[in-house]
Amino acid sequence: MKALSGIKKDSFLYLLVLPGVLYFLIFKYVPMWGIVISFQDYSPYMGVWKSPWVGLKHFIDLFNNPDFMILFRNTMVISLMSIVFYFPMPILIALLLNELKSAMFKRVIQSVVYLPHFLSWVIISGITFLMLSQSGGIINKLLPYFGYKPFNFLTNPDIFWWLLTAQSIWKETGWGTIIYLAAIAGVDPQLYEAAKMDGANRLRQIWHVTIPGIRNIIITLLILRLGHIMDVGFEQVFLMMNGAVSEVADVFETYVYRNGIQQGQFSYSTAVGLFKSVIGLALVIISNKLAKRFGEEGLY
């Protein structure tokens, strides 16, 4: 009865949450039953109920595939580079923006760094080709004026991972600062006053007040990011991939596209997706336990 009365009292709040709950139920949880086809030799004509059961066959085929280690290496390296180089950037930008005194200048900078987020990966890739193409790229046209030969940016396997990381930093850093700016705004101003009385300069205030104040947010977002460590972004990689860099560009998403969409291997590609999900879930659980062991709140 108490629960019903509480729902009735806050009925408008529950009504506000309802669309989001329905979205996750319909588009996230209900489709999860489809992972059963990863244990079947699924045929669209026979359907889920009549397709023959093959157990772990598709997982064994995946692990025995000679391309598995290449896919795993490329996916992990791209994700780890994103965590190491991209993940700290929104924190740094948020800290710098928070130090700006001019509200007008701060809004202008925020708008400039947010803008790339609203561009699609198709546009980002087009800009990249326009800037770095060996034949007509702006950068390669300028290099001879500085005494350098045109450089092969787009077909050089040695810099492909760095190119993807640079794109992600430019596109998403500004958008990621929103969460950290909101977290910084929640830090108690009295802590800054106390730090000033102790003689702390602005840099020490950031280190001893601001960063500890948003540490829980940083750890929570890091745990969530680890849960997506096997997801590197199909569209970005697919648009930037070419024959010269395929050895370092082929990841699980592009592999699933070729096998699942182009070749119709639905069960096999579902097994690949389930493998990725299990790895992400395991990393979330482990990182959350480590966070709690070191005294943090964690994700749950």
UniProtKB/TrEMBL annotation:
**Span of domain ABC transmembrane type-1:** 72-287
Where does the chain cross the membrane? 12-36, 76-97, 118-139, 159-185, 206-224, 266-286
Classification via SUPFAM superfamilies? MetI-like (SSF161098)
Q: Which residues form a coiled coil?
A: none
Q: Which UniProt keywords apply?
A: Membrane, Transmembrane, Transmembrane helix, Transport
Its placement in the membrane is given as: Multi-pass membrane protein
Keyword field contains Oxidoreductase: no
Could you tell me which PROSITE patterns the record lists for this protein?
Answer: ABC_TM1
**Where is the protein found, in the record's own terms?**
Cell membrane; Membrane
Where it mainly occurs, coarsely classed, is: membrane
Top-rank taxon, per record: Bacteria
Fetch the InterPro entries from UniProt: MetI-like, MetI-like_sf
Tell me the protein family, please.
Answer: Belongs to the binding-protein-dependent transport system permease family.
Q: What is this protein called?
A: ABC transporter permease subunit
Organism, by scientific name, is Paenibacillus radicis (ex Xue et al. 2023)
